[in-house]
Amino acid sequence: MNLPSAKLANSGSLITESPIRDLEAIIRSRTPLIAVETGEEPQIVQMVRQIASRFQLKAYRWTVTEGLQAFDPCDQPLQSVVKSQEVLNYIKTAATHSLFVLLDFHPYLQDAVVVRYLKDIALAYSRHYSTVVLVGSTMPVPPDLQPFTARFRLPLPSAGDVRGIVYDVAADWGAEHGKRDVQTTNKAIDLLVRNLVGLTATDVRRLALKAINDDGVISESEMPEVMRAKYELLGRDGVLSFEYETVQFSEIGGLQRLRNWLTVRKDFFLGDADTRLDPPRGVLLLGVQGCGKSLVAKAAAAIFGVPLLRLDFSVLYNKYYGETERNLRKAFETAEVMSPCVLWMDEIEKGVAVQEDDDGLSRRILGTFLTWMSERKKPVFVVATANDIMRLPPELVRKGRFDEIFFVDLPSPPNRRDILQIHLGKRALEPAQFDLDALVEATNGFSGSEIEQAIVSAMYTAHAQGHGLTQADLIAEIQQTRPLSVVMREKIQETRDWASDRTVPCD
Ligand SMILES: Nc1ncnc2c1ncn2[C@@H]1O[C@H](COP(=O)(O)OP(=O)(O)OP(=O)(O)O)[C@@H](O)[C@H]1O
Ligand SMILES: [Mg+2]
Fold first, then answer.
1. Buried (b) or exposed (e) across 235-262, using 16+ Cβ within 10 A?
2. pTM for the whole thing?
3. What's the CATH code, domain 413-487?
4. Taking Cα atoms as reference points, which of 334, 393, 402 lies closest to residue 364?
5. How far apart are the first and last CA of the chain?
6. Which of 4, 10, 128, 225 is the most exposed place for a label (fewest CB within 10 A)?
7. Whose C-alpha lies nearest to ligand 1, atom 4?
8. Which residues surround ligand 2, an ion (CB under 5 A)?
9. 17-152 adopts what CATH topology?
């Protein structure tokens, strides 16, 4: 499919009607001052211009560099009006039935004279009927002006708007490249649009151009890159991190049932299948350390083909002491903007285990989490992992919170064989050169992580002795290892007993 380089008739104008109508309603309700916090300056200016022409009002735009400029040259002030106080004086004394957009005005609001001028203008509204729209990246309205000021928020572009912007960007790109058409497919465009929802118009344009730019192609394979760039644009640090490394299920030994469970739900999660079934919301993985819980979180993102975000509870608690709940809510917001995505909450017991001595903080965190779990609308698939199930609050493991609670146990003999093959293979060793049956036997009670560690240590030993890895090196290393299942036998048994009637095995 080509996206033609000529603009398409239906390519969606940048501004849809509804935000204009909202702004119009505020202006018509005789509000003298309107504060707009946005980075989308051209859009606001354009909207004011349209409203002015619709109601036959005069309209002006002011910046500190260009002074006051009328959109219609007939309305241009006779002498130049440049300084902030000059423009306010002009509005106060000379204007009627006009709209003024003052750009980057926030620094001037710290000046008492400016504040008084604005108040004078507001108080005299019924004489001049002029409205002042203050625009800036932030717009803290001084208390004296608040009674006269309405806030206006520019909504983020809808999916339809995003599509329109992508088409416009493709058309502009084509025009600049000798009328070449952008090469793409319906599927790739749909994915791009879905991935760019949640960003401002400027950022949508920037990322769409980035996707097209190097080769004039929008392809599905570019989407991970787009999502990465999107995450960086959101500019949120700390609690959430973008996990660049995902894992294919082929790198995981066993856990077949869990793999199937995820695979059959993929289309429902992405909204590509029967809408009578609720999309999957998340799983809780409990189990023995080192048996692949973290691997599964990474593999889930790979199966669904969506980004993986990780929520780090230790950062949540330490870094922003006192703002913990707000930061958790912000993390959820970011995850929704990044949706569809997998949100990995590792060692969830560290975040939501209720402690008695923290003034109720952990309980509030748990409440915030449970509320979001039940109310979220966007496709964010939660993979929560926990080692210490005894510390998990009962509310969390109650039926219905997660779609399923899986128990990740020590690997069975066939799974140990798979794990041995995977980890030998990863280190360029030929599994067929080893007696796998004997290794499977010897690693009884080992976790996947311990099997991997045994291979790594045996390789070091063999290297130090100046020969390649042998069966004897492996067996010697395995025999020296005291696996956790021995060291913590009771604890693991206790976990298993607890899990037996509350969870589903992964195999
Ligand atoms: N089933 C498995 N197949 C292949 N490798 C495995 C498996 N289980 C564990 N491993 C290896 O052990 C490493 C540690 O596993 P992982 O971090 O997924 O365990 P975990 O259950 O999250 O442990 P923890 O409770 O300590 O966080 C993995 O990076 C992988 O190399
Ligand atoms: Mg882990």
1. ebeebbbbbeebbebebbbbbeebbebb
2. 0.76
3. 1.10.8.60
4. 393
5. 43
6. 10
7. 252
8. 293-294
9. Rossmann fold (3.40.50)
Question: Helix H segments across 84-144?
Answer: 84-94, 112-123, 125-128
Q: Are 17-152 and 277-395 in the same CATH fold? A: yes
pLDDT tens digits, residue range 423-445?
A: 999 999 999 999 999 999 999 99
Alpha helices in 159-243 (DSSP H): 159-176, 186-196, 201-213, 223-234
pLDDT at 95: 83
Task: Kindly state the average pLDDT of the residues 339-365.
Answer: 85
| Yes or no: domain 277-395 corresponds to CATH 2.40.100.10 | no
Q: What is the mean pLDDT of residues 358-370?
A: 86
337 vs 413 pLDDT, higher one: 413
Is there an atom of ligand 1 within 6 Å of 452 CB?
yes
Percent of the chain with pLDDT over 90: 57
The residue ranges of every structural domain in the chain are 17-152, 158-235, 277-395, 413-487
What token pair was written down for 344? Answer: 């990995």
Atom nearest to 453 CA in ligand 1: 12
Query: Quick check: 12 pLDDT over 50?
Result: no
| Tokens, residue 338 | 């990044």
